[in-house]
Amino acid sequence: MCANNFKINFVDGGVCAIRGVKTAGFREGKYGISIISFKNSDATGVFTSNKIKAAPVLSTRETLKNGKLSAIVANSGNANCFTGLDGETDCKDMINLVADELNISSNEIAIASTGVIGRRLPMEIMAKLIKKTANNLDDGLSSSTNAAKAIMTTDTVHKEAAIEVQLENGDKFRIGGICKGTGMISPNMGTMLCFITTDIIANSDYLNKALKKAVDDSFNMVVVDGDESTNDEVILIANGSSNLDVNVNEINEAFQKGLTVLCKNLGKKMAFDGEGASKFLEVEVINAGSEKDAKLASKSVVKSALVKSAVFGEDPNWGRIVAAIGYSGADFNPKKISIAIGSDDINIDDFDLININNINNNHNINNNHNINNINNGSKNINFNNNSINNSINNSINDNENLIYLVKNGNVLGFEGTKSLKNAEKAMKKKYIYVLVDLSNGNHTATAYGCDLTYDYVKINADYTT
Amino acid sequence: MCANNFKINFVDGGVCAIRGVKTAGFREGKYGISIISFKNSDATGVFTSNKIKAAPVLSTRETLKNGKLSAIVANSGNANCFTGLDGETDCKDMINLVADELNISSNEIAIASTGVIGRRLPMEIMAKLIKKTANNLDDGLSSSTNAAKAIMTTDTVHKEAAIEVQLENGDKFRIGGICKGTGMISPNMGTMLCFITTDIIANSDYLNKALKKAVDDSFNMVVVDGDESTNDEVILIANGSSNLDVNVNEINEAFQKGLTVLCKNLGKKMAFDGEGASKFLEVEVINAGSEKDAKLASKSVVKSALVKSAVFGEDPNWGRIVAAIGYSGADFNPKKISIAIGSDDINIDDFDLININNINNNHNINNNHNINNINNGSKNINFNNNSINNSINNSINDNENLIYLVKNGNVLGFEGTKSLKNAEKAMKKKYIYVLVDLSNGNHTATAYGCDLTYDYVKINADYTT
C-alpha cells in the first residue's frame, strides 16, 4: 500500500474532452436527438431496476452483452415505454437509421429515451433529427453542450462535466460526461440518462465494476422525489486513446476515484436542478455504525417531504431531521446525536471549482467534508476538498460556519436561542448543508437533494410527463 | 367452519358510543387537552417504530405492560419529543394532575402528545386545561366530538366513528374511536393518535393481537407523505360493559372484522383530510401473487409524489401508476397488468354510509370491491360493500363506471382515445379510485392517500410543526 498521489482538475468539453469522441444534438419542439460516436470502444451500462423497462433499456442491455459500442443515440420527448411490439420496432428502426448514417453495425449502438410513457415515437421527426445530428458530429467543445441540451426534458439547465486526472509521473487521462434528469435509484419520472466517456484502456467487465461503485456513491445518493423511472440508463465507454491501461495499480485507483468525482459532480448538478427546486440540499452523515446506516440516514433526511418543505420555507426544522433519521432504519442512540447546519450562495458551475489533491491515500472521497472551506473568502468553494489532513471530527468542530442545533443529544436550537436565529438566517441561502453526527462508529455517507416547492407540484400536476 | 352471520352498522357517539366511557376536550389557542375515562379496563397499544420516541410514547408503552387503563390524556400543540429529562418530568406531571383530578392511580393513565418537536410543554396551560377537562367529563354524544376536536393540529376536520355489531342471535357489542393525523407507518409529522373503546370482554393480550391485525390493514395502508412521526399511538381499551366475551368463536370473528372496519373508516378519514389534500385517493390491487405484493404495489402508487401530483392536476397519468408499480418490489408480468380508474363526489361523512352484512364467511373484508356500487343512483355509496356474492373479477369487469386505461398489458388510454377522455372527466371528482389487476394470483390490498397540492407545501413550509 504505497501512497498514490494524483491530481484531479475539471476541464472543458464534456464527453468530447476525450480524444476520438464526436457528438451533436438537435431539437425540434419538445423532441431532441443526441448522438455520441467513438468507434469500437469497450463499454458497460447500469440500468433502472424498475420492473417496467422501456424498449430502449431492454435493447441497450442486450447490446452491451458484447461489451463493445461505437455510438449512443438518445431521444427526448418520448420514453418509448409500455409501447409493446410497436415500441420495439420503433427502437430498432432508430438504431438502424443511426447505423446507416454512421456506417457502423447496429449491434454497436446503445439507445436511450426519455419523455412521456405509453405513446408511440414520432418516427418522422426522429428520422429527420437523426439524419441532421449524424451529419453534424463534431469533437469541438460546444458539441457536448449541444448534445446535453438535446436530451433535456423538464431540466432547466444542461449538465455536463469533464475531469483530467494527472498521475504522479505526469501521465494524464480524462473522463467526461453529460446527463439529464435527477438520479438513478430515486429519480423523478423525468428519467436519468448519463453518458460517460474516458480515454483509459479498460475492458467491459472492469468498467462495469467501476461504474457500479461510482453510481452507488453518486447518482444513487440523489433523491428528488423517490420515484424510480422506467428509462434510467448510465453508459460508460472507454476508447483507450490515452494509452494508459487501468490494469496498472495506481491508474486503477485514480480512475475509480476520478469516475466517482465525475459522477458526484453530475449527481449534484441533477439535484441542484431537481424539478421545481429553489435550494440544493446536501446531508452528510458521519460516524455511523456502518456504511449502510450512513446511507440510510442521509437518504432518509434528503427524501423526507417534511424536511424538503421546511427547506423551501427556510425553516431550520431540526425536529423533522431528527424524526427522518429516526425512521430511516439506521442504528444510533438519540442521546448522542448531533445536528448542524451550514449554507452558502452558489450556482451550478461552482460544483466544477475543485482541485483535488489525493495527498492521503486512505482519505476516501466519500469522507471529505464539504463545508470546511465555505466562506473562506474565496469564490472558489471547495465542495469536495479532500486535501485536508485534519481528521473530519476536528475540522467539523473547529468550523465556525456550522451552526449546531443539537449536540450530543442536547437541544441547542430551542425557540428564541441565538443558534436557532443564526440557523434561520443560514437557511436563506441557496446551498443548505446538514451535518448529522451519529457518534456510533466511523462510517460516512452524503446524500443530495432539493427542496419541495410549489413549482414541483405545478410541473408535475400541469403536464403529462 | 360454520357460517357466522353478523351485521355492522355505524352509530353515533365515537368513543362514548360505549357504555361506561366518559370524555371531554378543551382548547386554548394552539393547545388542547382531551381526557377519556373508563375505569379499570383491559387495554393495549401500538406505537411508532421511529427510533426517536417522544416521552409520552415511552411512558404509555411502560404503563401498558400491566394491560390495564382507567384513563387516557392527550394534548395537542406540543409533541414533548426530544425534550430530555425535562420532558419526562413534564409527562409525569401531566399524568399526576389527571390522577389527582380523577382520583385514580397514575399507573392506569396512558398519555399521548402531538405538535412541535423539541420544545418544553407549557405546563401552566396544560394544568389549567387538564383541570377544566377532568371537571367536564361526560358520556353525551357531543363529548366525543369535543375530545376529537381538542387533539387536532393541522387537521381540518375532527375524526370519529363508532359501529354496532349485531350477531345472528341478536347480541350486540360496540367499538368506537376518535383520531387525528394521517396514518401509522407512513403518516406525516402531524402525528397519528387514535383512541378506541369497546364494550367487549377481552384481555390485553387478545386486544393486542386484534389491534395489530386491524392496524396493518387500515392505518398502515394510509400514506400521506411517507414521513413517520415520533409520537404515533393507537390505544384500544375494552371495558366489558356488553357482557359479551370475545372467547366465544363467533364473537371473536365479528370483533376482529368490526375493529378492522372501524380502523379502515378512521384511516380513510385521515387520508381524506391529509395535509393540503384536495382529493381522496384509493388504490386497490387485486390478483397479486401474495398479500405482501398487493400491499407493496398499492402503497407504492399511493405514495408516489408523481402520481399524487397528477391526481392534483386531474391528469389520468397511468404511465406514472405503471412506473410506481414497477419499482414497488411486487412481482408481476407487465404484459398481463390492467389499470382502471373510477371516481365519485363524496364528503367525509359518506364513509359512514355503510351497512355490512357478513353473508359469506370466506369473503374477507380486505377483498371487498369498493367501486361496485358507486353511481348506483343512491347517495348511499357502499364504499365497503362486501355483501356481493359475485366474484371480484366478474363484478369489476361488469362495472361500466370503471374506465380501463391498460387491459392485459395493452394500452387503451392513448392520447385522443375515448378512454383517456373519459378518464380525464373522471379525475375531476373528489374521490379517485384506481384499480390495478396484476393477474398474478388471488391476493388483494387497498391503500389510501391523497393528492400532493400547493397547500401541502404551504402548510409544511410556512409553519414549524
TrEMBL record, chains A, B:
One of its GO terms (cellular component) is cytoplasm. Substrate binds at T153, K180, T191, E275, N460, T465. Its EC number is 2.3.1.35. The active site is at T191. It catalyses: N(2)-acetyl-L-ornithine + L-glutamate = N-acetyl-L-glutamate + L-ornithine. The record marks G190, T191 as: Cleavage. It comes from the Archaea. The keyword Protease does not apply. It is found in: Cytoplasm. The record marks T114, G115 as: Involved in the stabilization of negative charge on the oxyanion by the formation of the oxyanion hole. One of its GO terms (biological process) is L-arginine biosynthetic process. Keywords: Acyltransferase, Amino-acid biosynthesis, Arginine biosynthesis, Autocatalytic cleavage, Cytoplasm, Transferase. Pathway: Amino-acid biosynthesis; L-arginine biosynthesis; L-ornithine and N-acetyl-L-glutamate from L-glutamate and N(2)-acetyl-L-ornithine (cyclic): step 1/1. CDD domains: OAT (cd02152). NCBIfam families: ArgJ, PRK05388.1. Catalyzes the transfer of the acetyl group from N(2)-acetylornithine to glutamate, forming N-acetylglutamate and L-ornithine. Belongs to the ArgJ family. This is Glutamate N-acetyltransferase. It comes from Methanobrevibacter filiformis.
